[in-house]
Specification:
32% helix; globular; alpha+beta
């Protein structure tokens, strides 16, 4: 109701509906409706590729295995997280199923098999770093196995087995991936061969939101021309997540040769009182997330 994205079903046998739906952006929660809220006739069909589904499949395949799930539902605080890892380290847990929180920095010499489920989920996000993030995830998770005297094996599940990010990560070929990815970034003038800033305009009124973004774009373009900075100022466009918590979101991307040039442009508008970070405008220099 409040965001332009789907809600996620979380199983909970203690609830009469068998679980609840949760928006991971505005944090809204509600019980799973018995019937479709639109037609009020058909039942809701739940399906998914999340860690709860993985846990269910593991329990079916290996009924005698001691399985522990680690995600935001099961890990309430840092103590839960540490206790779970200690149980796994001690050999009291056979299979650890978790989100990306178990993909980095863990060193368990007795781990001999790692499975990466839906490895290409981030590959399809509308962000120029999607291949880089996919490569990082697979490479980091793969590094959790074979750290002891026994060799390790990694199984990657993907719908795109021939994508370079998947192939090169499976080969542990960082140099090959970096060379290819940097060439693509250079041809498109994207970071790290350039620097970027992103301005997101937010408003509950969609028309007002666009008008504010268009006015800001014109001011940025005029200042860029007058100062002869040579910065690329992209036209206002809806963010990939175009509405969060009832606020429409429109972005303006600014790409320049270096941080100093971008800062000159932003400073000129701030000094003219045309740009400020507030509840309706967010300025993000070197953004790590373009959603």
């Amino acid at each position: 109701d409040h965001c332009d994205t789907t809600m996620v079903f979380h199983k909970d046998s203690s609830l009469p509906a068998g679980g609840y739906v949760h928006c991971h952006h505005c944090t809204a929660k509600q019980l799973l409706p018995a019937l479709c809220p639109k037609c009020h006739v058909h039942k809701i069909t739940v399906f998914g590729l999340g860690v709860q589904r993985v846990e269910e499949e593991l329990e079916k395949k290996f009924p005698g295995a001691r399985i522990l799930r680690m995600d935001s539902d099961s890990m309430r605080n840092a103590r839960d997280y540490q206790d779970s890892l200690e149980q796994f380290r001690a050999g009291n847990i056979d299979v650890l199923a978790g989100t990306q929180m178990i993909g980095k920095g863990l060193d368990f010499p007795n781990v001999r098999l790692v499975g990466v489920i839906s490895a290409d989920t981030s590959l399809h996000l509308p962000d120029f770093r999607s291949s880089e993030r996919t490569f990082q995830l697979i490479a980091q998770v793969a590094g959790r196995t074979g750290r002891g005297s026994d060799p390790g094996q990694v199984i990657v599940q993907t719908f795109n087995p021939f994508d370079p990010a998947i192939v090169l990560a499976s080969e542990h070929n960082y140099d090959g991936f970096a060379e290819r990815e940097l060439a693509i970034r250079a041809s498109m003038g994207l970071p790290p061969v350039s620097r970027m800033a992103r301005i997101v305009v937010r408003d509950k009124d969609h028309v007002k939101c666009y008008e504010q973004a268009k006015a800001l774009f014109n001011q940025l373009a005029n200042a860029n021309r007058e100062m002869n900075l040579g910065v690329r100022v992209r036209e206002p466009a809806a963010c990939p997540l175009s509405r969060i918590a009832d606020y429409h979101r429109i972005q303006i991307e600014i790409i320049g040769p270096d941080a100093a040039t971008i800062q000159k442009l932003l400073t000129a508008l701030r000094n003219a009182r045309l740009l400020k970070s507030d509840n309706h405008t967010a300025v993000d220099v070197d953004p790590v997330d373009l959603l």
